Amino acid sequence: MAKLEQPEMRAKVELAVLLLVLVGVAAGTRPPSAPPPVSEEILQKVAGSLEMYVDELPQMPKIYGFSMRHGHPTPVRLTIGMYQKKWKFHRDLPASTVFVFGTSAATATFPGPTIEAAQGVPLSVTWQNYLPARHILPWDPTVPTAIPRRGGVPTVVHLHGGVHPPQSDGSAFAWFTAGYRETGPAWSTPTYTYPNAQSPGVLWYHDHALGLTRANLLAGLLGAYVIRNPAVEAPLGLPCGDEFDRVLMLADRSFYADGSIYMNYTGDNPNIHPQWQPEYFGEAITVNGKAWPFLAVARRRYRFRIINTSNARFFNLSLTNGLPFTVVGSDTNYLSKPVTATSLLVSVAETFDVVVDFSQSTTSEAEVVNTAPYPYPDGDAPNDLNGKVMKFVISPAKAKDTSRLPAKLLDYVAVAEEEAVQRRYIVMYEYDDAVTGNPTHLYINGKRLEDPATETPRAGTTEVWEVINLTPDNHPLHLHLASFQATRVRGLVDEDAFKRCMEMLNDALRCDVSRHAVGEEVAVQEHEKGWKNVVKIAPGHVTTIVVKFFMVENGKPYPFDATAEPGYVYHCHIFFHSVEARKNQNQNQNQN
Length: 592
What we know:
This protein is mainly beta and about 600 residues long. The chain has helices at about 40-50, 215-220, 230-235, 495-505, 515; strands at about 1-5, 10-15, 60-65, 65-70, 70-75, 75-85, 95-100, 110-120, 125-130, 155-160, 190-195, 200-205, 220-230, 245-255, 285, 290, 295-300, 300-310, 315-320, 325-330, 335-340, 345, 350-355, 365-370, 390-395, 420-430, 440-445, 460-470, 475-480, 485-490, 520, 535, 540-550, 570.
């Protein structure tokens, strides 16, 4: 676990982990009763009955997080609610019941509206919960979960990639039910403040409630958030405007024949966790809320801000006509210069900002396909359904394309690993049931959810974290608030011996990690050498990341007190692997 400090000031930054905790379930908050069992073959049959590329890619509605006064953007206050409604994922699929964001039930969408903010202009958002008394999807009360006494669906909103005060971070313990009738122990305000002081780029907002994030996101509580600065971005000459600058929110889902979203009702170890499973993989791939959509494009450059909002699925994306992606940004920040990639491996919650030049296409159509095994990297190969994402239909341009790809983009602070004041070892464990061999829980640094914080970075400093993955899967590591960058990835030698030692001592230095971390070095991809908030942690490897606890745009301190309650968290962003942070009990007692 972790704390964030300033000199003479401390506040807890909690670690997100998963563990077994038995909790009571109030009568009005029990998981929904299970429908008749459904097989994987039936789910594939339902998905396979849907013709691909018949629904047009939606342009999500936009909400401006500022107003113009005398030619300058000025702050506004928004009110956004969470609603239950019906949503059509496909022309031939009955409407699905979903939970979605919007300014009203009538305007709410899957995904939610794109919030467009202006760099340097703070935004206040009041988040409101209009969800029903019971969830539409199953959930598991044997993992740490927000369970209100009087019913209702707990929610709280986290702005992923945002640099904002801890009170506005969406602590998993700051949950609330409809009308704020019940609130979690870290809840303090219905209105969150986003300074938007960070670099222009794409973020996304989503539910973050304790133990329910996986179900609430599967139900639809997610949306995009874009920070813009025309003075900085216009000179770059990248494609712009609603038609040529598009957000693509990827999410896999499986459906019952009646259109209902499928989620498993039985866990891999039902005697331990009745419902929890380590991953969810849907048969249908949705983009902006439509299964396998198409988009008509002209022979010119387009900018796509790709966000993987799936629960556990990685995407390895490429175009069937051979066109490359030109990557200009990753997560919320620009790269220093464009990087060309023929394919993009996008982990859960990761984003890539790319340009595709359709004027170079030799075909009139191009599919976006996916080749990432699931779970990644050694799981099943994608099939004819989840191996397809969407299609572009290419036609002649009607006007001259004035966009360009600049030789240089934006600069940030240097990595400067030598400036680190602390080196930490962060270790990912997975624990399996002796009988079934299936995972029962995952820990980081062998710590339970309720254990005291062990990471106490100081605001304004740089640290190096050596992240060791002793599980069989790749885990997307997400740090709230901080920006970080992978600098090295090296394989573990004699991993089994190291793992046995770690399970006994839980101390990388005492287990002589330097003797084991001498395997083959894996190069960090050029398009991933930027300041990120999600980094892939490969199994059986040590990934070195440099973490900055200050503004990477200019090296300045955060423009707020980052040591306040309830702190921040870091966690694996596979939604079935993380039950987010707990309340800070210290209440800054060490401040002078």
